[in-house]
Design goal:
By secondary structure, this protein is of the alpha/beta class. The chain has 22 helices and nine strands. Its main location: cytoplasm.
Length: 609
């Protein structure tokens, strides 16, 4: 059992070292889950004397007003033999054998945190005392409750102290040591009043009655000590502290304990209670009870630690790694983040993630619909055919077939396909841009660095813009190639004799009649439809080759080339992480270190049993 108290002591010290004082609601706290004993009492209740009696040493600052202005985590370690000494956690390599120096260091360390003012602070001081005259025990000495502010203190000090005390004792894992003076009415006790508020059934409260020897003649505290006046689950304990005269004379604490025992044993009022009275009994009782509470809490503590470690690791993973300090590390980090983005972008195109199917929709629906809306038959109306044929003939009518007229009709019709071809290029460009922005938002690492996110997004869009221009040029060339060289075989297969619909014997004047022109329009429409069907297949190939394939292959190539030229300062500007995120990661890292250390310590104790 002794090991369990040492275990909690160790975890408490780690909590303080890593900034866990149980205050910050934004972070999980281990401090509040640890069983502890909080010493509560009003000013002049004899609280300090009780602690010194348990320890057997004068070591606490004394004076008028509020002397304890920071929580003091007092960890007592029983040693078999040797000289008594004390250690502060903030002075880990210094042993104090002079307890007057301990008192001075408590006052000095309080001033370092609060200044020379009379303000209070919730940051605890950790003091360990090693002595053969103590039991293994940990106590948290809290500032004394007061009703008025003294000179130099704000009016809020009364409520500030009460709130601090309440923040400790309202936790279900806190054992309350309520100190009340016997020479005052128990109904006015500050310690009992606040303890009752947080522990109305007295299940966590130990009542300690001080100054029994200073009660008015003819009065005693038997009813209180027997639990008749105010019942608690645990028996009340009476103590007799040294008087101020004893303190001034530096009466030995061991001698004071002996006098305390004799007082109860020889007292006619308290003789029957003597076996459970006194500071020695109080120390042993608290030590035993704390061991029992710790043992009962270990399974729940292990479960809490495991759960919290998982939560901390998850959040740290979401926040990402900290920024590297050297230029090479920064460059590598940026490249890795960009590769993550690039991989996500490719997954969208390849179908692992959604979005790439929209490109196929452009080719399968949008492009055919755009070509269909061109309505070539209207462009090849009788009037337009007549106009272009006659204009092409010039002053000499064609002799056999209006070849120039055919070419003009075909060229003027095919040029309209440029519109749908450009629209297909632009539609795919818009989809690729949307996928870039979507991939940017899905790249967790880029959320850390706003400037890098903007730069990567701009670089990717610039690349897509260049690819669009190349794609547009290549795709329009496909349309222009069809206009620049006609497929002769198509026209050779057209019927040439009268039986098959040809009119080779018509006169020059008959060659411009409606039937003849209608035949020309029909032939041109058939040819254009053939070309259109071919382009419907070749335009997607060009777009995919120039845009989709290139985006997958070299989306950030230009950005990488420019990145290699940047200096350390410029690389740092790209990794301008939000300071709040940096601070959060640091705090989470410390808290995770605390929980892992606590897990290892608890496992070592539980597995060692």
């Amino acid at each position: 059992m002794e090991t369990l108290i040492s275990l909690v002591n160790k975890i408490q010290r780690a909590c303080t070292a890593l900034g866990d004082h149980g205050e910050d609601n934004a972070l999980p706290t281990l401090w509040e889950a640890l069983p502890s004993i909080a010493v509560v009492g009003g000013q002049s209740s004899g609280k300090s004397s009780v602690l010194e009696s348990i320890v057997g040493k004068d070591f606490l600052p004394r004076g008028a007003g509020i002397v304890t202005r920071r929580p003091l985590v007092l960890q007592l370690h029983k040693i078999d033999e040797g000289r008594e000494y004390a250690e502060f956690m903030h002075l880990p390599r210094k042993k104090f054998t002079d307890f007057a120096a301990v008192r001075k260091e408590i006052a000095d360390e309080t001033d370092r945190e609060t200044g020379r003012s009379k303000q209070i602070s919730s940051v605890p001081i950790h003091l360990s005392i090693f002595s053969p005259n103590v039991v293994n025990l940990t106590l948290v000495d809290l500032p004394g409750l007061t009703k008025v502010a003294v000179d130099g203190q704000p009016e809020s000090i009364v409520h500030d102290i009460e709130n601090m005390v309440r923040s400790y004792i309202e936790k279900p894992n806190c054992i309350i040591l309520a100190i009340s003076p016997a020479n005052q009415d128990l109904a006015t006790s500050d310690a009992i009043k606040i303890s009752r508020e947080v522990d109305p059934r007295g299940e966590r409260t130990f009542g300690v009655l001080t100054k029994i020897d200073l009660m008015d003649k003819g009065t005693d505290a038997v009813d209180i000590l027997e639990g008749k006046s105010y019942k608690l689950q645990f028996p009340w304990i009476g103590v007799v502290n040294r008087s101020q005269a004893d303190i001034n004379k530096s009466v030995d604490m061991i001698a004071a304990r002996r006098r305390e025992r004799e007082y109860f044993q020889n007292s006619p009022e308290y003789g029957h209670l003597a076996s459970r009275m006194g500071s020695e009994h109080l120390g042993k009782l608290l030590s035993k009870h704390l061991e029992q509470v710790i043992k009962s809490r270990i399974p729940g503590l292990q479960s809490l630690i495991s759960k919290t470690i998982n939560e901390l690791e998850t959040e740290l993973s979401r926040l990402g790694r900290p920024v590297a300090t050297d230029a090479g590390g920064k460059l590598y980090m940026i490249m890795e983040i960009c590769r993550s983005f690039d991989q996500i972008f490719k997954e969208h195109l390849d179908g692992t993630r959604s979005g790439g199917d929209k490109i196929y929709n452009v080719f399968d629906n949008q492009l055919p619909a755009s070509l269909k809306r061109l309505q070539f038959d209207k462009h090849l109306s009788m009037d337009n055919v007549r106009k272009l044929i006659t204009e092409a003939d010039g002053y000499q009518p064609h002799l056999i077939a209006p070849e120039q007229g055919y070419r003009r009709l075909i060229e003027s019709t095919l040029v309209t396909i440029r519109g749908p071809a450009e629209a297909a290029v632009d539609a795919v460009h818009v989809i690729l841009k949307d996928l870039v922005h979507k991939s940017i938002s899905e790249t967790m690492e880029l959320k850390q660095y706003p400037t890098l996110r903007v730069e990567v997004s701009a670089a990717a869009v610039d690349s897509l813009d260049r690819m669009r221009e190349e794609s547009k040029k290549a795709t329009l060339q496909l349309v222009d190639m069809e206009s620049s060289y006609l497929t002769v075989e198509f026209f050779r297969k057209l019927p040439q004799d009268a039986e098959k619909g040809g009119n080779p014997t018509l006169s020059i004047f008959d060659r411009y009649n409606d039937s003849y022109l209608r035949r020309i329009g029909s032939n041109v429409l058939a040819y254009v439809n053939m070309v259109c069907a071919s382009l419907r297949n070749s335009i997607p190939k060009s777009v995919v080759y120039c845009q989709v394939r290139e985006a997958k292959r070299s989306l950030l190539d230009y950005f990488f080339a420019e990145l290699g030229k940047k200096e350390t300062r410029q690389l740092s500007s790209l990794l301008d992480e939000d300071p709040a995120v940096m601070q959060r990661r640091t705090l989470l890292g410390k808290r995770l270190e605390l929980y892992r250390s606590a897990q290892a310590d608890i496992d070592a104790v539980t597995w060692g049993k």
